[in-house]
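Researcher: I'd like a candidate sequence for this fold, 328 residues long. If you have to choose between options at a position, lean toward the conservative one.
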């Protein structure tokens, strides 16, 4: 099974990797639902920043903080949380911990949350290594009160899960430059308090607002979404669409597509030379084309970039990173 995890890591994309790893483990360790995810550490806050959910509704992440409250991590790594499974796992990082929810707490909010999402028993593993400000957590859940995780299941998880984490890191390195999903997600309440943010979304938001970090969305973004009937935001580097789902704000965050990326290679060559001040005949001579061909290419480039003169053309190409900005 361990060899299979590394085989999966080398031959699948990031989403498929997690799916196939869960299927592989489920052949031996039975469970009803599962999560492979990362917890980002922002000051003293723990915020989910990446999660693959197996047989788990997305509302489970969205409602966790509203029902159970925030989770705080101290400088020595101890976690303040109402979740008995997570608290026990952080107390024994690097080990698998089985938790009988009903026997581990009398907290009504926790019991209500677990009843709502059909969780009676939890088997959780929190990595003892922090990578890039995040800690990996893996949870398996069973719905039946009678289906406790045995000592053998805990021992099996202790053997497998460190390899699952390492194989996942191998997969992330191998697929780092492959095409990824065009958008990534953030879930917050209506005031902008972040419940979940994929780490790709955090990176994009920090490109737009370099000083920003969770747990609150940037003020400018929240104000823009409130004032925009379409619930969207178009920034310098990213485009965001929002969807209200009850008391939850679901954001789809994507890198803004530059109009310059729609130019053909021939249009881009002519437009770059024109932005540098060359005339039609000079561009035609340099590229070995007729002046009429250059004129047609530039006309198409002007239309795609929505510009009317060389000054605007130059500015558009600089904003797209194709031409360097002039030195101050």
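Model: Candidate sequence:
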């Amino acid at each position: 099974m361990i060899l299979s995890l590394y085989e999966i890591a080398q031959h699948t994309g990031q989403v498929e990797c997690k799916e196939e790893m869960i299927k592989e483990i489920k052949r031996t360790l039975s469970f009803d639902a599962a999560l492979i995810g990362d917890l980002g550490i922002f000051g003293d806050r723990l915020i989910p920043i990446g999660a693959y959910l197996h047989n788990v509704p997305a509302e489970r992440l969205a409602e966790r903080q509203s029902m159970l409250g925030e989770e705080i991590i101290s400088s020595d790594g101890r976690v303040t949380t109402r979740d008995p499974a997570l608290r026990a796992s952080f107390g024994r990082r690097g080990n698998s911990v089985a938790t009988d929810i009903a026997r581990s707490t009398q907290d009504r909010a926790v019991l209500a949350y677990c009843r709502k999402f059909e969780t009676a028993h939890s088997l959780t593993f929190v990595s003892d290594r922090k990578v890039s400000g995040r800690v990996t957590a893996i949870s398996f859940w069973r719905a039946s009160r009678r289906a406790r995780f045995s000592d053998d299941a805990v021992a099996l998880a202790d053997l497998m899960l460190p390899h699952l984490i390492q194989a996942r890191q191998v997969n992330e390195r191998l697929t780092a430059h492959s095409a990824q999903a065009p958008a990534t997600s953030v879930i917050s309440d209506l005031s902008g308090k972040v419940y979940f943010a994929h780490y790709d979304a955090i990176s994009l938001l920090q490109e737009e607002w370099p000083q920003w970090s969770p747990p609150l969305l940037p003020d400018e973004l929240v104000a823009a979404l409130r004032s925009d009937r379409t619930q969207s935001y178009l920034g310098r580097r990213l485009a965001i669409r929002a969807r209200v789902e009850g008391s939850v704000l679901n954001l789809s965050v994507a890198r803004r597509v530059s109009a310059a990326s729609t130019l053909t290679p021939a249009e881009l060559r002519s437009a770059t030379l024109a932005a540098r001040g060359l005339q039609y005949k000079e561009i035609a001579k340099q590229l070995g084309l007729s002046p009429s061909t250059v004129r047609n290419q530039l006309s198409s480039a002007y239309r795609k970039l929505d510009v009317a003169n060389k000054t605007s053309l130059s500015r558009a190409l600089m904003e797209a990173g194709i031409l360097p900005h002039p030195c101050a």
